[in-house]
Amino acid sequence: MVVKKNTIYRLLCVLVFAVMAIICIIYLYNKPENPEAEVHEARLKISQAANITGPYAESLLYAARNYYDSAIEEWVSQNQKIILFRDYSKIKDFSRKATFMAELSIGTSEDFRKNMLVELNANQLIADSIAIRFKTHFSSLPLNEEYRNTEFQALLKLEEGRIAFEKGDLMHSKKCIKQALDSLAVLQESIEYELKEYFQQHNTWTKWVQETIDLSKKEKSAAIVIDKFGQRCHVYQSGRLIASFPADLGVNWIGDKIKSGDKTTPEGKYKVIKKKKGTETIYYKALLINYPNNDDRERFRQFRLQGLLHNRDEIGANIEIHGGGGKNIHWTDGCIALNNEDMEQLYHLVREGTPIVIIGSLRPFDQVFTNNIHAHAY
């Protein structure tokens, strides 16, 4: 009986060891590979993506982090199981997806940055072109305070965008540059609209000039043409151009003179009514013109009737072509100023009664304002 029990015991031991051996063989054969490498790779890629990803790829980075968190949670869950029943396949799958999304985030960020750099460089070139246009065509214009303030604020915003660009804050740079360009574009359109309205008179100006030149030719006498946008004082003799001088105008030189104190150089057909020199003028020498003429008086009367002028407003007088100019800015109260050397020549070329025509421009709008730029930020 004892022998029989010992035999059964030995068989049981052998059976147990056999089962354990089989389990070990099965485990070794089917042992799940440790997911540490995949998890580590995912963690590194997410860290790299976090350092370069901007708001333009945040959703991709968010997805990568979600997959990574799922991998860690699954790893914890599997480690709580008996080793033989652990399955790391989901951990690896989540980790690979996390790595893929992080790499996609990095690639998207790099592509976006490259495209953004191209875009911002293009917008800065557009901004520079608009700035050049303003400097070339608009800097000398007597713009109102609202326009000047808009221009100033836009240029400040443009500078803010450049600083942000240098610091690598591309999104803020793009926002600032777009705001600046949009403001400048609207301002430019407003200015050009008003100028085009002003240049509707160009046919009338051309007619006045031709009539004055024809009179000069017919009477074999001198005539003066003041071109405001050209900033020139042209002198004709017997219908032929014989001299041209740079001219400074009134501070608010665009448009016709309405009243005393508006600092606008009048427009129309006039004549020299007195030649001044010595103590007669404080500006070396001067030619007094017959402003206001009948057309000026009638326009002033109409404006007053329409309530566009106060009762205390006066029409003004004492408009001259005088010396003391050559400052290359428009500074007078409405007169035309030449430098003293040019004034000396003009003084001897004309006489009392010499016709003078003052116009906005000899050239039409499209020739004055060439290479129109209507720019928009990307």
Any overview of this molecule?
With 378 residues, the protein is α+β, with helices and mostly antiparallel strands. It has a domain at 202-363: L,D-transpeptidase catalytic domain-like, CATH 2.40.440.10. The chain contains ten helices and eight strands. The protein has an eight-stranded mixed sheet. Strand 2 and strand 3 (240-246) form a beta hairpin. Helix 2 runs parallel beside helix 4 (89-138), helix 3 runs antiparallel to helix 4 (89-138) and helix 4 runs parallel beside helix 6 (170-198). The longest helix has 50 residues, at 89-138. It is rod-shaped. The termini are far apart. The model is unreliable at 371-378 (pLDDT under 50).
Question: What is the global morphology?
Answer: rod-shaped
Count of helices?
Answer: 10
Instruction: Tell me what the CATH architecture of the domain at 202-363 is.
Output: Beta Barrel
CATH topology of the domain at 202-363: L,D-transpeptidase catalytic domain-like
Low-pLDDT stretches are 371-378
Write out the CATH superfamily name of the domain at 202-363.
L,D-transpeptidase catalytic domain-like
> What fraction strand?
5-15%
Q: Helix and strand string, N-terminal first? A: HHHHHHHEEEEEHEEHEH
Q: What is the strand tally?
A: 8
Structural class: alpha+beta
